[in-house]
Every structure is written in C-alpha cells, then in structure tokens.
Design brief:
It contains five helices and 16 strands. By secondary structure, the protein is an alpha+beta fold. The chain has two domains: 148 residues, no CATH class; 36 residues, no CATH class. A hairpin with a 6-residue loop joins strand 9 and strand 10. The longest helix is centred in the first third of the chain and has 13 residues. The chain is globular, with a radius of gyration of 17 Å. The N and C termini lie far apart (35 Å). The relative contact order is 0.18.
C-alpha cells in the first residue's frame, strides 16, 4: 500500500508512533494539526503547504520522542516534497509519481521498503508486492483528485512571491493571495499563525 504525498509532507513510520509516541496511534491522531492525515499499515502522512509548518510539526514530533535525523539520515520521520521527493537520505522510504487513471492523472506517493526489495522499472517495490497487483493508495478522508493539490498544485519560489502574488489576507484559516500571472485567488492552508 502507498500513502499520498501532497505539498510538503511529514512521513512517519507507524511502528515508531506505536513504540515512542505518548498514547501511541490514538495520541498521534489527536495531535495532528490539520485534516491531511492518511495512513496505511506502515506509514502515516501529514501534509503541509509551507516549509515552516512542516518544520514546526517535525520539531513537535521530536519533542514527543520521535527521531528525525541521525547522521543526516531519516530515522522515524522523513520530509517529502511533492515535486522533488524525499529531502534527506532515507533507506526505508520510496517515492514515486504514479498514474491513477487512463487520463494520465498523476499523484505522488511513498511506501515503506525494507532491505529485501524487488526492483521494477527502476522503482524498489516492497518484497511482498506481486507483479500485476494493483497499488492501493491511502488518502485523507474526503480527498478527491479533482479538488487536490495533485491536480491544482502551484509552487511559487520565495524570490518570486512579491513579484507574482499579492497577499490579500486570511480567510477561514487560509492565507489568500492574488496570483498576478493568472488573475485568480490562491489559498494556502497554514497550521502556524506566522
């Protein structure tokens, strides 16, 4: 099974949550600051739209007993960018872009891998995966491709922010911008108040 990756995602090993997080899986679910949580038997994903928010979340996970990096390698938590993949060395995680239908719509996904891997077309699959088997995708509750970052993703480099966007204010907990390149409003979900 795979978990969806959208925006900048914190991917956390479920075993680490069960073993290290106060009150285990139930405590973790209550701790998640937004509605992006999705999970399979091995991984949990919590997505963010800003690097500051994912950084703050990872910091809070570390305060609660999980380890982000050891010797610059991901231990319990990995940060994964929707466009670029895993941001640090991580031997236990695979990232890929997958087609989800015949219209060539794509989503970005991660899955847990072990030392025993099957390599197919340059992608390491879990050792229990069978060729021809469909891949199950874990998504947040209520997620649809039509209303997702996977379909409507737009990334603006920090140096272009003031040139391409005008900040209009906050609306229902979202930062609202006017995209000067399209004339449309863009919304950025935030978990921090900065």
């Amino acid at each position: 099974m795979t978990v969806l990756v959208e925006g900048i995602s914190a991917i956390i090993r479920r075993k680490s949550i069960d073993d290290k997080f106060m009150n285990g899986w139930e405590g973790f679910q209550e701790f998640v600051p937004n509605n992006t949580l999705c999970f399979d038997d091995d991984l949990a994903m919590v997505g963010f739209m800003s690097p500051q928010d994912v950084q703050g979340f990872v910091y809070q996970l570390q305060e609660r007993g999980l380890t982000f990096l050891k010797n610059n390698k991901a231990v319990d938590i990995a940060v994964v960018d929707q466009q670029r993949g895993v941001t640090t060395e991580c031997a236990w995680l695979m990232f890929s872009h997958l087609n989800i239908n015949s219209a060539s719509d794509k989503v970005d996904v991660c899955w847990l891998v072990s030392e025993e891997r099957i390599q197919t077309a340059g992608i390491h699959m879990p050792s229990n995966w069978q060729a021809g088997e469909s891949i199950k995708l874990a998504t947040p509750s209520g997620w649809t491709y039509e209303n997702s970052l996977s379909q409507k993703f737009k990334f603006v480099e920090n140096e272009n922010l003031n040139k391409d966007m005008i900040f209009l204010g906050r609306e229902d907990g979202m930062y609202v911008y006017l995209d000067l390149t399209t004339g449309k409003k863009l919304y950025e979900g935030r978990t921090s108040k900065e």
